[in-house]
Structures are given as C-alpha cells and as structure tokens.
Amino acid sequence: MNLVQFLSLLGLFAAGLAIGCPLARFVPFLPIALIELACGFVAVLFFGSAVYRRCGWMPRAPRCPKCGSADRAYSVIPHQADGFMLECQKCKQVLVLQSEVAVVLGDDGQEVGRLRLRWPKIVGWWTANPPFK
Ligand SMILES: [Zn+2]
Questions:
Q1: Is the confidence at residue 133, as pLDDT, over 60?
Q2: What is the Cα–Cα distance from 98 to 59, expressed in whole angstroms?
Q3: How far is the CA of 72 from the centre of ligand 1 (A)?
Q4: Cα 21 to ligand 1 centroid, rounded to whole Å
Q5: How far is the CA of 100 from the centre of ligand 1 (A)?
Q6: Ligand 1 centre and the CA of 86: distance in Å?
Q7: How far is the CA of 71 from the centre of ligand 1 (A)?
Q8: What average pLDDT does range 28-53 have in this prediction?
Q9: Between these two residues, 130 and 85, which has the higher pLDDT value?
Q10: How far is the CA of 106 from the centre of ligand 1 (A)?
Q11: Which one of 6, 45, 53, 104 has the minimum C-beta count within 10 Å?
C-alpha cells in the first residue's frame, strides 16, 4: 500500500465518520464515538475495493501457491495482457495477477488454477477457488 492508497482509505474513513455523526443521534444507547468509528470502518470495508478497482490499483500479491513463501517476493515479468505476470523468487512459480484474480500458470504456460480475492478485498486475502494442488 502506497501513500496515495493509504490517504484514499483515510479519506473514506473520514467520510464514514462524517456520516456516522448524524446517525449517532438515532442510537442513543451507544456512545457517539463508537458509532462514528463503526461507520468509518464500514465505509472502508465496503467501498475500499470499489475505490481500488476504479483507480486500477492492484491488491497485495498472494502467497506463492507452490512454495507458500510468506514474504511474497516476486519478480515482475513483462506481459502483454491485463494484469501483472509475477514469478516467485524462490521456486519460479509464475502467476498473472489481475484486479481480483490471480491465474496460476504451470511449467508449460497453461493455467493450472486460480486464486480469488476474498472480502474485504483491500486486505489482500486470497483463496483457491476451486482448491488445487
Ligand atoms: Zn514460490
């Protein structure tokens, strides 16, 4: 996450706080600050991925599906199609990272599986759908 992405999410959080202020009057049994914070988090969780998609930002890369490397160290390979082609620096597994899908390629360049981004998509949690390996 770079500074622009962080500031965008912070702006979403501030918008949620601003919306939560008048909503807090309708819930007198909870503290106002708690309702405002909840509205801020909800705004980030529900609208953050839409902002990411609109701005064309890529999510955090998944763990390598072959070696499971947690450091997510990839080399970017020049690629013509949508997304980024990444190569794991440890095991040389290649995958194509798109906005919400990571296509896992085999040694022959054919697709062997897909990883899908789970909600909330701005966090970068990936799951194999369907499971493979
Ligand atoms: Zn790997």
A1: no
A2: 9
A3: 8
A4: 47
A5: 20
A6: 10
A7: 10
A8: 89
A9: 85
A10: 12
A11: 6
Residue 67 has a CB neighbour count (10 Å cut-off) of 13
Span 65-90, pLDDT tens digits: 889 888 889 999 887 677 789 999 99
47 within a domain of the structure (yes/no): yes
What is the CA(124)–ligand 1 centre distance, in A? 17
- The answer as to whether 121 is a domain residue is yes
pLDDT at 112 over 70: yes
The count of structural domains within the chain is 2
CA of 37 to the centre of ligand 1 (A): 39
**Alpha carbon of 5 to those of 28, 59, 77, 109, 112: distances in Å?**
34, 11, 24, 32, 32
Side-chain half-sphere CA neighbours of 20 within 13 A = 21
Give pLDDT, residue 15.
93
Distance 66 CA to ligand 1 centre (A): 5
* Domain limits for position 49: 3-55
